[in-house]
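$ ./design --mode recover --in tokens.txt
reading tokens...
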């Protein structure tokens, strides 16, 4: 009886130790990912500000190519903002609306 209890207790302690080890490793991984996401969001914020400053400059040429490039830069700026909000969104089921831009899956022009 005591031998069976001792063996069972030993197995449970081994399993507990393995569980604690795995949980600590996963916790460290989650913290590293969180730090990486925060750094990425900082970079995205800097790029968003930089692109916004460029888009404030008025166009002096009415060529369609320049208008298209200007529109592409605006779409890139909006995409950066959507990506940043998607990274921090808690509710993944709702559409992300940012400054009048609604991001939808498969929305391409």
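writing sequence...
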């Amino acid at each position: 009886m005591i031998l069976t209890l001792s063996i069972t207790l030993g197995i449970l302690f081994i399993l507990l130790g393995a569980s604690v080890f795995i949980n600590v490793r996963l916790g460290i991984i989650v913290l590293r990912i969180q730090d990486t996401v925060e750094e990425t969001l900082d970079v995205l914020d800097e790029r968003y500000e930089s692109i916004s400053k460029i888009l404030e400059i008025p166009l002096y040429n009415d060529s369609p190519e320049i208008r298209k490039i200007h529109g592409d830069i605006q779409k890139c700026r909006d995409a950066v903002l959507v990506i940043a909000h998607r990274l921090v969104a808690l509710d993944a089921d709702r559409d992300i609306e940012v400054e009048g831009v609604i991001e939808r899956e498969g929305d391409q022009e």
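exit 0
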